[in-house]
Amino acid sequence: MTESSPRERAIAQEQDYVDHAYHALDSQRAAYADRLSTVRSQTGQESAGELSERDSFASHYEDNLTRLRNVENRLVLGRLDFEDGTNEHIGRISLKNSDREIILLDWRAPQAEAFYQATAAHPGDVVRRRHIQTRFREVTGIEDELLDSNATSNDLNLTGEGALMAAMNQARDGKMSDIVATIQAEQDRIIRAESQGVLVVQGGPGTGKTAVALHRAAFLLYSQRARLSRSGVLIVGPSPVFLRYIDQVLPSLGESDVVSTTIAGLMPGVRATSVDSAYAGEIKGRLVWRRIAKRAVREVLERPLSRSVTLTISGVQVRLTPRDVETAHSKARRAGTSHNEARDVYARMLVDLLARRVADAKDLSLAENEWIIGDVAASTDARREINLHWLPSAPSQLLERLYSRPELLREVARELSDSELSALIRPKGSGFTPADIAILDELAEHLGPFHDDFERRQRSAAQARQAELSSYVSETMSAMNLGGGILDAGMMAERLADSGPRITLAERAASDRSWTYGHVVVDEAQELSPMQWEMLIRRCPSRSFTVVGDLDQRPEGAPQGGWRSLLGRLGENVRQENLTISYRTPATVLNAASRTLLAAGARVASVQAARDLPDSFVDSPATIDTVNEVLAMEISQACLIMDAEYGVGGGTLAVIAPEAMHDRVAAAILASESAQRWPTDTDGNDVAARIQVLTPYQSKGLEYDVVVLFEPAAVLEEGPGSLYVAMTRPTRQLRVVHTTALPEGMHA
Q1: Which of 98, 110, 211, 310 pairs with 523 at a CA distance of 20 to 30 A?
Q2: What's the rounded Cα separation, in Å, for the pair 741 and 393?
Q3: Any idea of the CA torsion for 123, 127, 133, 136, to the nearest 10 degrees?
Q4: Confidence band (pLDDT; 50, 70, 90) for 55?
Q5: Which residues are bridge partners to 620 per DSSP?
Q6: Closest CA to 590 of 566, 615, 607, 605
Q7: Which of 697, 659, 698 is nearest to 681 (CA)?
């Protein structure tokens, strides 16, 4: 019998432990499943309090079952061996054995910090760090690091370098994976930083900004569970395709109290279906819209009466004067509520005033003849005149009115020049753009709740259904001799009406514009305008933010004032951390991208590549006549390389083309043999498609095994930051197809 090697014995030892950990996981799942089944079987005789308690327990058990199911893969991450001979296993969550002893330590626990922070220069009491590679429940490998204090520390000091490089060399499948097993020391310090205030994380391409932001969200949800489980965490990404790319990370870390959206998705019920020019988008992002929005509500919707009008009500003529309207305006504004809410105060005062005048004209007592108030409220002339001077409005109605009426926009947007105003004018029905969403949000703050006729009909129908259900329940309870004053029909009907799928915290928060979050994470934050930052401040008054991005990846490059100049009012008090090591992008590609940016006159932060690969940069010139053929050939060649590396069909490829050329390139690729052979997406919707055709903006925050970059000189014209983004998406190879000269600095 062949004697096993030390490595094989170590793997067998860890397999025994992993089996033990999964046994504990299975036991916890079974226990929660049993409790949930027991709770769900309780029906019929509970009091209202007991029903509420039952539902709370059911929700708690469901949440825990979901969390335990999501951590099935790669449950155990590694082990720490200490000087005193003890050891500690680190995993995705904490687990206890049947004796209630902790056998697996959550990676976020303070005691687990050494797994990510210990180095040869500063080992603390750690003797050995072991990374354990698993595939589902099977141990596939281990990597040991002996922390020798005599080792040199002038290199990159990558924690778990073997596991890290193995992760980097895996095929991309269109979904971001967590990095919990390979978090590096500089990343870990940011993940565990305190939550108060604004933390800016500046990092170049491939430094793990997004992964750090998501793992920081998971860490805060763990360390501040009581607070954040009530308010949740908001994650803001640059595009819907980006959100689909990251949507598995937090569930795999056992967290679900998170709302993820784009900045354009922060207004429930409003969709951005149009696109601005760069000029119009910049104008709409200025903070001056805070003044314009307030002025628009007051001057467009709360208009004074210019001269007295005579109204015929109940057969008599009464006058409504400018002073009457002015007094009603003042009273409504003193109420301290929003425009739409204050309208009731305004309208009630004028109705009462006109009713008194009608009563006086008829020589009647208003107190004894309240029907007069009804006559005033029913008068078409009175309603029209009252409404004209305090119009209720939805934000979308008011903004569309401003954009479609140049004279009205000029009246309220007095800070804008004629050319700026012209860039904003558009006909009704044009739809809103992403930059409009922040203006709509500002208008909503001043306008308050608005209910149109359709919403009123919906509410009336809902009230009728509730009344019908209450009647049915009341009759049923009476026939069955139930209730006894403890559980009334209304309470029972409400519970029956809510017996559908349970609404999660994330779902409640996403549907409520006024929801305030405990923490906000903003990715690709360099793209946001001052007005968009105002929108986010409103959703997190405590100003607890994690802001991640790369100033060099802005289309126009890094601004002179750095992050503080971009963050609006959030920039008043920020602390900044820098990520300096690129784990994704091969050194040859990263250096070419940096040289190109510098040659274009833009600044670029220093980033060091953790690795390089042979043939990572391929130059493929073409002519106008051959460009489609060369493009198709480069895609086919890249797919063959990925087939050889990862197996047939493995890996993902992005064709990144200038915005103006995207549709033409997409059409050419869809007509090629590659599109017939491999799943191809040209709309930025399918993150799992093997071939994806994107603009530089759509590719932000994403990564691919291979990138085919089309006409880089044209991309550079759209902005140096756009070219920098496009060049730094690949983990393995950048293939450049071009009919014009390469931008200066791009050649190796």
Answers
A1: 110
A2: 54
A3: -100
A4: confident
A5: 737
A6: 607
A7: 698
Q: Is 745 left (phi over 0), alpha (psi -120 to 50) or beta?
A: left
Residue 155 has pLDDT above 90, yes or no: no
Q: How far is it, in rounded angstroms, from Cα 563 to Cα 200? A: 8
| Residue 43, pLDDT score | 65
Q: Strands 233-237 and 258-262: what pairing?
A: parallel
> Do residues 699 and 254 lie in contact, with contact meaning Cβ atoms separated by under 8 Å?
no
Q: Are 214 and 590 in contact (CB under 8 A)?
A: no
> Is 70 exceeded by the pLDDT of residue 379?
yes
The span from the CA of 121 to the CA of 374, in Å, is: 84
Q: Cα separation of 244 and 343, whole Å?
A: 42
Question: What's the rounded Cα separation, in Å, for the pair 524 and 521?
Answer: 10
Q: In this structure, how many other beta carbons lie within 10 angstroms of the beta carbon of residue 504?
A: 17
| Calpha distance 419→400 (Å, rounded) | 19
Q: What is the pLDDT of residues 63-106, one digit of tens each?
A: 888 889 999 999 999 999 999 999 999 999 999 998 999 999 99
Cβ pair 235, 701 in contact under 8 A:
no
Identify the burial level of 246 via C-beta atoms within 10 angstroms of its C-beta, where 0-12 means exposed, 13-18 middle and 19 or more buried: buried
pTM score:
0.85
Whole-angstrom distance, CA of residue 25 vs CA of residue 708: 44
Nearest to 656 by CA among 591, 610, 735, 709: 709
Beta bridge partners of 263: none
Q: Which amino acid is at 449?
A: P
| Nearest residue to 198 via CA among 531, 482, 465, 549 | 549
Residue of 373, 386, 382 whose CA lies nearest to 347: 386
| Residues 730, 701, 510: CA angle, nearest 5 degrees | 150
> Which has more confidence, 367 or 492?
367
> What percentage of the chain has pLDDT greater than the value 90?
72
